[in-house]
Amino acid sequence: MTLCRYALLSLSIAGFLQAEPLGEVQGFVADAVDGHPIANVEVQTLGGVYRAKGAGDGRFSLTQLEAGDYQLQVTAPAYRTFTEDVHLSEGETKEFRISLVELKLRRADTMSVVEKAIPASGETSPGQFTLSGNDLENLATVLADDPLRAVQGLPGVTSNDDFEARFSLRGADFSRIGVYLDGILLHDAIHSLEGTDLSGSASVFNAGLIDQLDLHEDADTERFYDSSAGSLDVHMRDGNSDRYSLRIMANLGSAGLTAGGPLGHLDRCSWVAGYRKSYIQYLLANSLTDPSMAFGIEDVEGRASCRVSARNILSLDVIDSHTDLDRSSLQATLGANALMLVKQRSTFANLVWTYTPSDTIQITNRFAWMQDSFDAQNPVKSPLGTGDYGERVWSADATKMWKADAGLSAGFVLRTMNDAGFTEEYDTVRAIEHLDTYKGSGLLAGGYLQETWTGLGGRLHVVASGRWDHHDVDNVSVYSPQASMTFRLLPSLELQTGWGQYTQFPAISVFGSNLGSSALLPLRSTQATAAIEKRFGTSTRLRAAFYDRQDRDMLYQPFSDPRLLNGSVFMPPINALYTNSLRGYGRGVEVYLQRSSTKGISGWVSYSYGRSLMHDGVTGDSFRSDWDQRHTINAYASYRLRPSVNLSSRWTYGSGFPIPGFLTEVNGNFFLSAKRNTLNLGPYQRLDVRVNKYWNREKWHTTLYAEVTNLTNKTNSRFGSLDGYSGSNGAAYVSIDTMFPILPSVGVVFER
């Protein structure tokens, strides 16, 4: 018996000594953007047989692994899951450096020029501010989930209206800020009710499909066309070409579905598409002076992209958006000129071909089509207004790098536009009175040439460009030069200067209107800026900018507003004409401190002081612009409380816009005045706080959002409309809307 025990023990020891040596997988996990280590990641083999928790410094180790094939899976809250196939031989140790991408960011299949790279847009626009990732998501708000509302929180941007996606830059209104989707200027970037005086809007962009936004407010290069006060460059993301994804979103204001993946069996091809429907009109109904004026929106958006060869990429962007208002329940109480049914539709398609014939040349062609229409009806379904706009665009850009520090870019654009429509009202005497009737078409052609050069060991960067544009309606040709310089005084200190002239032509609806003329001139803007920027490490910068913008030949209707004239009430004509009589300027200073990092606090705080004044050459009136706000503070902060919990907050303060019109106030009552824009709405202030909680599972990611809008319950107001006035004593009847009170909201996203 004892002999048997010794025999068994000997066999066990021999088996142990002959067992295969075990292997190990170890590594380091960091954020893909800034390289900071990610703490407390979870690492396992698929199926969970081997599992380990990462350390605070981002390192992990899986030990005691037998030889064989494994699929390694790395997860962290708020990041996309990483998987990698691993083969281990006997006793082998393998080490990995893994970069995780935030859930909000997406992989993009793009073409890049090697060896002599084309300068990034930021290098040619010193004042560019880029918004992406979790910052874009947090600022878009749970309630609206709107990328344009995220822009409202950026330095230098002013917006004091909770109902509006529009914003202003340096005293200039939204119509002067070009919104470009992957290089094409959009005719209508928002959901609104065109042809009406209803104030409220939301962008046509689905936040789940937007990769990043680039705001250019300084003197910018001439590659952006037909905008005179700034530009917003919107980049749609690609789908994943190696796997399918699904994202389901729902909150109190909207619901949506986003999906994407490989495009059939084609290699390196992908698609992504999203559907969104907003219910924010039910929330607006509780805040508007007339609750029945709340409108609904829905849209479909998508992108298909394919690398057809090593040097060719094709992509197609599509947007189809709908906006509607239905007040049929109030039909019996509405007047002859009251809106009952309004519908608006915007459709956009853009085919982009990027070709790189060599390592130093890149050529991009864009072929775009857009169609916008609206229809407004009164209670008996007679038209109050209709409109139908169409545009076809061909644009091309080419860049040639002469050497690593110098490059030449050139481009042109051809736009054929047509527009037709009218607005009218009814009365008991003349039955129908046409307020505005327009019909016309036109061809706008333009091109630019730009040279970039870097010298003095990389300390000096110079951009010089010129643009030429011609419109065949007014037969006007315009040349617009531009130049900017960035000089590195110290390794962490830069001086940035820029000067440029910019052109914006009147819309076809003005050229072809009974209120306009084919002889109207384009708006001309001359901008100068000087900034100094100090960097602290790679993640923090302090920037102070001084700007001056001089505008002339702006479109204006000098006699469209009632007022006091020589002590008597002036009643404007129904059809007040457009002229190029307005001149003005915007000047001021902007200072902001920004930190961008996955560790600690990320965000910015900014202060802007600006003045924007106008002068009308026809009447001789001088006044503040409608978007003149002297003091603006925008602050945003994001902080990861725990690996799975993120806290963010946005605070906005504005000293107030003027109440537009010739108005004064006496003992709480409004009266017509001889001076324009003398009253102020008063300060605007809003604090929003948001918490994101993440759960990662093997296949699904779940995110719960909770947000409180206007946490301090500050009462903010906006100008609604001038509803009427007395021709005898000048009494004016003005609507002032109260905006959102304290408003909690929640949302959830399921993603795989």
Tell me about this structure.
The protein is mostly beta strands and 752 residues long. 5% of the residues lie in helices and 57% in strands. It is built from five helices and 45 strands. The strands form eight sheets. It has a 22-stranded antiparallel barrel. A five-stranded mixed beta sheet has the order 8-15-16-11-12. Strand 18 and strand 19 form a beta hairpin. The longest helix is centred in the N-terminal third of the chain and has 17 residues.
Properties at a glance:
5 helices; mainly beta; disordered N terminus; 22-stranded antiparallel β-barrel; 57% strand; globular; single chain; 752 residues
The proportion of residues forming helix, as a percent range, comes to: under 10%
Beta-strand level of the residues, as a percent range?
Answer: over 45%
Q: Whole-number average pLDDT?
A: 85
| Helix and strand composition category | mainly beta
CA gyration radius, whole angstroms? 29 Å
Note the gap between the termini.
Answer: 61 Å
Strand element count: 45
The main β sheet shows up as: 22 strands, antiparallel, barrel
Number of helices: 5
Low-confidence stretches: 1-18, 105-124
| Basic shape | globular
